[in-house]
Queue: 4 jobs
Job 1
Amino acid sequence: MSANQEAKKVVAQEIEEKIKASKSVVFVDYNKLTVAEVSELRRKCKQAGCEYKVYKNTLLKKALNELGCDKFDNDLNGPTAVAFGSDETCAAKVMVAAAKDYADKVVLKSAFVDNAYVDKNGIKALASMPSREELVAKMLGSMQAPIANFAGVLSNLVSGIVRVLDQVAKTKQA
């Protein structure tokens, strides 16, 4: 095996490992972005907890085929960038926002989430979903609300008794 083939095999294994480690992987066409825009997009991805990389389509196809996914062959044509997400929604949110911010320069292709193929509309749906942290906060707020309301009722009950006793004491003194 030549050194070039060996290097490609290593890169394909790296891609496969990143896909396995990621909760979501979003593929986009980035053809018309300037270097400054790509740098800004990488920064936004990093802030959101995902990684933006560019790989050759043949290596992406090979890695996905190793994972048993052959539905991506049609999408992996032309310039392709990949966003590896640490949760199911972060990469989709960043890439959908980039598609809006950069108009025709970033085009959504497809995604790989929970070992399944997701099309453009699915990426947009993922981007509109709340993140795990938001869902946990909402759940905790829902659990805390009845307790807070009960504490408020008890507090009003006790303060009402105190007011009544205060009025009784004032009427006895008069």
Job 2
Amino acid sequence: MKRILCFGDSNTHGTAPMRDDNDVVRFDADTRWSSVLQAALGFGFDIVEEGHPGRTTVHDDPIEGAHKNGRSHLRAILESHWPLDLVIILLGTNDLKFRHGVSAFDIASSIGTLVDLVRATPMRGRPIPKILVIAPPPILEVGWLAEMFAGGQVKSEALGASIARMAAQRQVAFLDLAPIAKVSQIDGIHFDEVTHRAIGAAVHKAVIPLLT
């Protein structure tokens, strides 16, 4: 049995596009991209869905809470789900919030910090898991989240290239969602059902060489 950890934010959790703060719906297990990946891989693979809405790469959120910091929880999650054969990291969107004030370069560097943490976590006699870093697609400043993400759209358009450079430097696998997925026009951040299926198929294609 090969175990794959999907470490992400609300788009890994499966949060549907939101019209306002109270419009919270989670797609079911047949829809989420990580579940689509599980179905495509079939028997012999165990997908661990670890998507936390609001999760950042390395930042305590001054409004939503310090528990949104991905770095603070990653090692515990790695140890909890040991042994792991592959870790997929899909983060960066929440770092684009105006409150964090970071550049695309800084976000890519923060994801690099998470890559380093995966490699530094003892695997108790097992090989270090392979790593796939996924760059989220550009966001849109629309809907009720537009002010929260003010200035984020331009930065998000540079994010794929910045993450690609980081991944090449650290020699980890990379997938850019920009050609594959578009965020919803409803809130500019989340994915619809069709997009989840497209992402699941693309990730499946990307992970096959890493697991053989």
Job 3
Amino acid sequence: MSFRQYGFIFLVFSTLFLSPSLFAKNKIYTSFFSKTAAGGYDVVAYFKANKAQKGHKKFMFSYKGAHWFFLNQENQKAFEAQPEKYEPQYGGYCAYAVSQGQTAKGDPLHWEIHEGKLYFNYNESIHKKWLNDKQKFINQSIKNWPGVLN
């Protein structure tokens, strides 16, 4: 293969695989091989039952390019009517990470409802740290969101 052919292959590779837009994150956190939002947990249940509860595939609604699962049709309908009321802040990314100008997986088992909004954190230790000064971290996150997705 000639130098020119290698150059062409590098150009194609870098355009396709190293493009900044390729690395932009989705507005809703889902795992790499899934389109499931909130780890499959029913986001309405946090507000109604005050606990994390897994949703069922038979009660699924697509919103913002992700699949949201619910315990029952009532919760699904509530979300469909007002998704912005129930969806986790920062697309379900870790609220503390967003406050630090980063993104990290939000774990639906480490959550908090504050002033009517749902927040996820990465793990228990980050959640405790976030709880110690959550209003400061929320204020920082608001400034950083959605810029941390780029």
Job 4
Amino acid sequence: MSETKNEKMGLIASLYEWVEVFCFALFVVVLLFTFVCRLITVDGSSMNNTFVHGDRVVISGLFYTPKTGDVVVLQDSTSVEMSAPIIKRVIATEGETVDIDPETWTVTVTDKDGNVRVLEEDYAKKIYTITLPISWGEILEIDPESLSAVVRDNDGVLVSGPVEVIAVDEKNLEVGINGKTVKVNTETLKATSTDGLGNEYEVDSDKVKINLVRMRLPSVGEMYYYQNAIPPSAYPHTVEDGHVFVMGDNRNGSLDSRFLGDIDERMIIGKALVRIFPRPKIGF
């Protein structure tokens, strides 16, 4: 009987120890996420494809000094655009000079000592269109990203569209426009055009081209709306003291320093350290 009692007491003691360990671990986690780290949820597509909407990311602002290439989370309760946390990449810090070539998507940063470097931005999501002739003087322009297409004349003037593009599979697109059905393989750029009578023609491969879309900079209307926008003519642009210049990796789908101006470093609430959901990853 005494052995059974001792066994029960041992089980209770062991259970107590496990509860104690669990409570201590919970206490440590609470301390970490109160004073060291913070968990945020990515909202929107401005950092595609590095982060996508719904990603869970651990950030920390403890002893943090921003540097080029860091992914940071910003928040400014006094700003409409930044009233909720937003995630961007630091392109340049105070005193550094940023230059942007929107045609080639080249971003150049000159530091305070005059050292010039062209950023290697494998993370930047560039936007391409596919163009091919569909009749004399008319060019079909397909946007594989938005799955839309338009027809332009040789001078680039819009003739018709936009119309929906059907993604037959991962590589093949199909669009019906102006009585024709055009099929394009985005990998090989092989294209065919079928007229209203069902006659199919192969498009000359030399005339099917992939084009890099111009990187977005503020238009006249956007500069009127965003009072702190940096005019295209103002580049090269030197970052203010105590500020950073940030951009989203999804360059043509991001509201960032091009439109909001330099961001006060005090608005940085932390650097992204690790993505924990849905695809764990350290470093960006």
